[in-house]
Write a structure and sequence with these properties.
The chain is an alpha+beta fold and 304 residues long. Helix content is 17%, strand content 40%. It has two domains: 137 residues, Roll (Diaminopimelate Epimerase, Chain A, domain 1); 156 residues, Diaminopimelate Epimerase, Chain A, domain 1 (Roll), CATH 3.10.310.
């Protein structure tokens, strides 16, 4: 029998029972064969197993699992793991700022942990890849139907597109009155979208598509075993690419705030930033806070 300790936190929120729950095994056994099964047992959007880094210059290696699959990169697990390790003292003392690097399947992920004037910690990741548009054609009417909407619910002058910063998302601008009505049509999704680059659906509303800085978003990912996610960092990173291409911000840092999860009763806040140089997007950042919620231990037989 072996014991495997974990910690849970609510991520992208500053209060318990908000944001997106996350489980982290902070000192995981690299040889543990049951990682996917433990993620399915916990049945949270993601579960992280923290391992020693392969490159000693890096801080830790992360393996990230949804209930159904391992991911090469995910934002809420990255931010949440950084804050769990920091809050439990595993990264040493943090007076004001600490820069670390996590190894993930998509590549090294820099994370900055900062303590504000009130003493609260926040973490901001830099996406391992600059968000980019995929050339795959999309059928807006099909995407709308997959979310139980009509084509009239879509923003008429803003075409949907697939962007990826490590994981691809179909970003679908919808009219504000229709976002809360979206609900995945699993039969249509299975027959038309499963296995395509548009299988992860990200309907979005912006207060002003020309220059707005606040958005409401939702994310549906049945392929990950997640009917709907209350806060999605990888999608937020992809959305940075969409916004940068749409708004063409000036050189420097441009920031937006995303609200997600209200329809699930788990309101979340995600801060995103586009770094622009010579008119091009050169980096995407995703940040937020977290609240530690619980600690536990799995007792597993040696052959698990």
């Amino acid at each position: 029998m072996s014991q495997h300790a974990f910690i849970t936190a609510d991520v992208f929120t500053d209060r318990p029972f908000g944001g997106n729950p996350l489980a982290v095994f902070p000192e995981a056994d690299p040889a543990l064969p049951a990682m996917q099964r433990l993620a399915a047992e916990l049945n949270l959007s993601e579960t992280v197993f923290v391992l020693p880094p392969e490159n000693p210059a890096h801080t830790r290696r992360l393996r990230i699992f949804t209930p159904a699959a391992e991911l090469p990169f995910a934002g809420h697990p990255t931010v949440g793991t950084a804050l769990i390790l920091a809050e439990t003292g595993r990264l040493g003392p943090i007076d004001r700022r600490l820069d670390i690097v996590f190894e993930e399947g998509a590549g090294p992920v820099p994370v900055t942990i900062e303590r504000d004037a009130a003493g609260r910690l926040g973490a901001t990741l830099t996406s391992p890849r600059v968000p980019a548009r995929l050339p795959d054609p999309l059928d807006p009417a099909l995407l709308a139907r997959a979310l139980g909407l009509t084509e009239a619910a879509l923003e008429p002058d803003i075409a949907p597109a697939v962007y990826s910063a490590g994981v691809a998302f179909a970003i679908l601008p919808v009219r504000p009155a229709h976002l809360s009505a979206a609900a995945i049509d699993l039969a249509l999704w299975r027959s038309e979208l499963a296995g395509t680059s548009a299988q992860h659906l990200y309907p979005v509303v912006l207060d002003d598509w020309a220059a707005g800085r606040t958005a409401r978003v939702r994310m549906f990912a049945p392929a990950m075993g997640i009917t709907e996610d209350p806060a999605t960092g990888a999608a937020a990173a992809a959305f940075v690419g969409f916004l940068a291409d749409r708004q063409r911000p000036a050189d420097g840092a441009t920031r937006w705030t995303l609200a997600q999860g209200a329809e699930l009763g788990r309101p979340s806040r995600i801060d995103i930033t586009a770094d622009i140089a010579d008119g091009r997007l050169v980096a995407a950042r995703v940040g937020g806070t977290a609240v530690l919620m619980s600690r536990g231990t799995f007792d597993l037989p040696d052959d698990a």
